[in-house]
Amino acid sequence: MDILSVLQTNFLSLVLCIIVFILLWMNRGKKSSFERLPPGPRPAPLVGNLFQIGLAEPYKYYLELCNKYGSVCTIWLANKPVIILSGYKTIKDALATQGEEFNGRAQYPFLMRSTNGFGVLASSGQRWKDLRRFSIMTLKNFGMGRRSVEERVQEEARSLVKAFHEFDVFGHRFEYKDPEFLLLYDTINAYFDVLNSPIGIVWNECLLSSVDK
User: Fold this and answer.
1) This prediction's pTM
2) What is the DSSP string of 157-171?
3) Which InterPro entries match (predicted)?
Protein backbone atom coordinates (compact mmCIF):
# COMPACT_ATOMS: atom_id res chain seq x y z
CA MET A 1 0.00 0.00 0.00
CA ASP A 2 1.55 3.31 -1.06
CA ILE A 3 1.53 6.55 0.89
CA LEU A 4 -1.19 8.10 -1.33
CA SER A 5 -3.62 5.28 -0.55
CA VAL A 6 -2.93 5.62 3.17
CA LEU A 7 -3.56 9.36 3.03
CA GLN A 8 -6.81 8.87 1.11
CA THR A 9 -8.00 6.26 3.62
CA ASN A 10 -7.14 8.50 6.55
CA PHE A 11 -8.84 11.45 4.90
CA LEU A 12 -12.05 9.48 4.30
CA SER A 13 -11.98 8.23 7.88
CA LEU A 14 -11.58 11.78 9.12
CA VAL A 15 -14.49 12.99 6.98
CA LEU A 16 -16.72 10.19 8.27
CA CYS A 17 -15.77 10.99 11.86
CA ILE A 18 -16.60 14.66 11.31
CA ILE A 19 -19.99 13.78 9.77
CA VAL A 20 -20.82 11.45 12.67
CA PHE A 21 -19.78 14.12 15.16
CA ILE A 22 -21.96 16.74 13.44
CA LEU A 23 -24.97 14.39 13.41
CA LEU A 24 -24.50 13.56 17.08
CA TRP A 25 -24.11 17.24 17.94
CA MET A 26 -27.24 18.23 16.03
CA ASN A 27 -29.24 15.49 17.76
CA ARG A 28 -28.08 16.47 21.25
CA GLY A 29 -30.98 16.89 23.66
CA LYS A 30 -33.48 15.20 21.33
CA LYS A 31 -33.91 12.24 23.64
CA SER A 32 -35.28 14.45 26.38
CA SER A 33 -37.37 16.30 23.77
CA PHE A 34 -38.95 13.01 22.67
CA GLU A 35 -40.02 12.35 26.25
CA ARG A 36 -41.75 15.72 26.57
CA LEU A 37 -43.39 15.85 23.13
CA PRO A 38 -46.47 13.99 21.83
CA PRO A 39 -45.81 10.70 20.00
CA GLY A 40 -44.82 10.59 16.36
CA PRO A 41 -42.55 8.93 13.80
CA ARG A 42 -38.87 8.82 14.69
CA PRO A 43 -36.95 11.47 12.73
CA ALA A 44 -33.86 10.82 10.67
CA PRO A 45 -30.68 12.69 11.59
CA LEU A 46 -30.29 16.10 10.02
CA VAL A 47 -33.50 16.05 7.93
CA GLY A 48 -36.08 14.84 10.46
CA ASN A 49 -39.28 13.59 8.80
CA LEU A 50 -38.94 15.92 5.83
CA PHE A 51 -38.63 13.19 3.19
CA GLN A 52 -41.60 11.27 4.60
CA ILE A 53 -43.97 14.14 3.91
CA GLY A 54 -45.67 14.24 0.53
CA LEU A 55 -44.82 17.75 -0.59
CA ALA A 56 -47.73 17.84 -3.05
CA GLU A 57 -50.37 16.79 -0.49
CA PRO A 58 -48.82 16.94 2.99
CA TYR A 59 -52.21 16.95 4.71
CA LYS A 60 -52.75 13.30 3.72
CA TYR A 61 -49.56 12.37 5.56
CA TYR A 62 -50.72 14.37 8.59
CA LEU A 63 -54.05 12.51 8.61
CA GLU A 64 -52.23 9.16 8.48
CA LEU A 65 -50.09 10.20 11.44
CA CYS A 66 -53.13 11.29 13.46
CA ASN A 67 -54.88 7.99 12.73
CA LYS A 68 -51.79 6.14 13.97
CA TYR A 69 -50.61 8.28 16.90
CA GLY A 70 -53.77 10.10 17.95
CA SER A 71 -55.21 13.59 17.54
CA VAL A 72 -51.98 15.20 18.82
CA CYS A 73 -48.67 14.07 17.32
CA THR A 74 -45.20 15.37 16.49
CA ILE A 75 -43.09 15.51 13.34
CA TRP A 76 -39.64 16.99 12.88
CA LEU A 77 -38.66 19.37 10.08
CA ALA A 78 -34.86 19.17 10.24
CA ASN A 79 -34.17 19.81 13.94
CA LYS A 80 -37.45 21.68 14.53
CA PRO A 81 -40.37 19.82 16.17
CA VAL A 82 -43.85 20.59 14.79
CA ILE A 83 -47.00 19.64 16.71
CA ILE A 84 -50.00 18.52 14.62
CA LEU A 85 -53.55 18.87 15.94
CA SER A 86 -56.44 16.96 14.35
CA GLY A 87 -60.15 16.81 15.07
CA TYR A 88 -62.70 19.41 16.10
CA LYS A 89 -62.51 18.71 19.84
CA THR A 90 -58.71 18.84 19.98
CA ILE A 91 -58.43 22.03 17.95
CA LYS A 92 -61.24 23.70 19.92
CA ASP A 93 -59.60 22.74 23.20
CA ALA A 94 -56.25 24.17 22.08
CA LEU A 95 -57.36 27.34 20.30
CA ALA A 96 -60.51 28.23 22.26
CA THR A 97 -60.50 26.64 25.71
CA GLN A 98 -56.76 27.15 26.18
CA GLY A 99 -56.38 30.00 23.72
CA GLU A 100 -54.13 32.00 26.04
CA GLU A 101 -51.49 29.26 25.99
CA PHE A 102 -51.70 28.70 22.22
CA ASN A 103 -52.00 32.29 20.98
CA GLY A 104 -48.42 32.54 19.76
CA ARG A 105 -47.54 32.81 16.10
CA ALA A 106 -44.74 31.41 13.97
CA GLN A 107 -41.61 33.53 13.89
CA TYR A 108 -39.91 33.95 10.53
CA PRO A 109 -36.24 34.95 10.98
CA PHE A 110 -36.30 37.17 7.88
CA LEU A 111 -39.31 39.12 9.21
CA MET A 112 -37.92 39.25 12.75
CA ARG A 113 -34.61 40.54 11.45
CA SER A 114 -36.23 43.29 9.38
CA THR A 115 -38.49 44.47 12.26
CA ASN A 116 -36.18 43.63 15.19
CA GLY A 117 -39.10 41.72 16.70
CA PHE A 118 -41.29 44.81 17.03
CA GLY A 119 -44.59 45.66 15.38
CA VAL A 120 -48.06 44.30 16.08
CA LEU A 121 -47.90 42.02 13.03
CA ALA A 122 -44.41 40.60 13.64
CA SER A 123 -44.26 40.28 17.43
CA SER A 124 -45.72 37.55 19.62
CA GLY A 125 -46.34 36.73 23.26
CA GLN A 126 -45.96 39.39 25.95
CA ARG A 127 -44.30 41.85 23.57
CA TRP A 128 -47.35 41.65 21.27
CA LYS A 129 -49.67 42.30 24.23
CA ASP A 130 -47.66 45.34 25.31
CA LEU A 131 -47.53 46.76 21.77
CA ARG A 132 -51.25 46.16 21.24
CA ARG A 133 -52.11 47.84 24.55
CA PHE A 134 -49.89 50.81 23.70
CA SER A 135 -51.34 51.11 20.17
CA ILE A 136 -54.96 51.07 21.38
CA MET A 137 -54.21 53.60 24.12
CA THR A 138 -52.48 55.90 21.63
CA LEU A 139 -55.32 55.63 19.11
CA LYS A 140 -57.87 56.40 21.82
CA ASN A 141 -55.90 59.54 22.67
CA PHE A 142 -56.29 60.53 19.03
CA GLY A 143 -60.06 60.05 19.30
CA MET A 144 -60.62 56.45 18.20
CA GLY A 145 -64.17 55.39 19.05
CA ARG A 146 -65.52 58.95 19.14
CA ARG A 147 -67.54 60.85 16.57
CA SER A 148 -64.93 63.61 16.55
CA VAL A 149 -62.46 61.34 14.80
CA GLU A 150 -64.85 60.59 11.91
CA GLU A 151 -63.99 63.81 10.10
CA ARG A 152 -60.27 63.05 10.39
CA VAL A 153 -60.81 59.57 8.98
CA GLN A 154 -62.81 60.92 6.04
CA GLU A 155 -60.21 63.60 5.37
CA GLU A 156 -57.40 61.05 5.39
CA ALA A 157 -59.43 58.71 3.17
CA ARG A 158 -59.96 61.49 0.61
CA SER A 159 -56.23 62.26 0.64
CA LEU A 160 -55.41 58.59 0.18
CA VAL A 161 -57.78 58.24 -2.78
CA LYS A 162 -56.27 61.37 -4.30
CA ALA A 163 -52.78 59.89 -3.90
CA PHE A 164 -53.90 56.71 -5.65
CA HIS A 165 -55.28 58.74 -8.54
CA GLU A 166 -51.98 60.63 -8.84
CA PHE A 167 -49.96 57.43 -8.99
CA ASP A 168 -52.51 55.79 -11.31
CA VAL A 169 -50.82 52.46 -10.66
CA PHE A 170 -52.58 50.47 -13.39
CA GLY A 171 -55.15 52.91 -14.71
CA HIS A 172 -57.86 50.30 -14.94
CA ARG A 173 -59.31 47.36 -13.05
CA PHE A 174 -58.57 43.79 -13.98
CA GLU A 175 -61.18 41.29 -15.01
CA TYR A 176 -61.01 38.17 -12.87
CA LYS A 177 -60.02 36.04 -15.86
CA ASP A 178 -57.48 38.51 -17.22
CA PRO A 179 -54.18 36.64 -17.97
CA GLU A 180 -52.04 39.36 -16.37
CA PHE A 181 -54.20 39.37 -13.24
CA LEU A 182 -54.06 35.57 -13.04
CA LEU A 183 -50.26 35.70 -13.37
CA LEU A 184 -50.02 38.13 -10.44
CA TYR A 185 -52.47 36.06 -8.43
CA ASP A 186 -50.60 32.79 -9.07
CA THR A 187 -47.26 34.42 -8.23
CA ILE A 188 -48.51 35.65 -4.85
CA ASN A 189 -50.09 32.27 -4.11
CA ALA A 190 -46.89 30.45 -5.06
CA TYR A 191 -44.88 32.68 -2.73
CA PHE A 192 -47.05 31.85 0.27
CA ASP A 193 -47.23 28.16 -0.70
CA VAL A 194 -43.44 27.94 -0.63
CA LEU A 195 -43.24 29.97 2.58
CA ASN A 196 -45.63 27.60 4.37
CA SER A 197 -44.28 24.39 2.84
CA PRO A 198 -41.96 22.06 4.78
CA ILE A 199 -39.00 23.27 2.72
CA GLY A 200 -39.91 26.90 3.42
CA ILE A 201 -40.22 26.21 7.13
CA VAL A 202 -36.84 24.46 7.20
CA TRP A 203 -35.30 27.37 5.28
CA ASN A 204 -36.63 29.89 7.80
CA GLU A 205 -35.92 27.87 10.92
CA CYS A 206 -32.49 26.51 10.01
CA LEU A 207 -30.74 28.52 7.32
CA LEU A 208 -31.91 32.03 8.14
CA SER A 209 -31.64 31.40 11.88
CA SER A 210 -28.02 30.36 11.46
CA VAL A 211 -27.36 33.49 9.38
CA ASP A 212 -28.83 35.69 12.12
CA LYS A 213 -26.57 34.08 14.72
Assistant:
1) 0.51
2) HHHHHHHHHHH-SSS
3) Cyt_P450, Cytochrome_P450_fam2
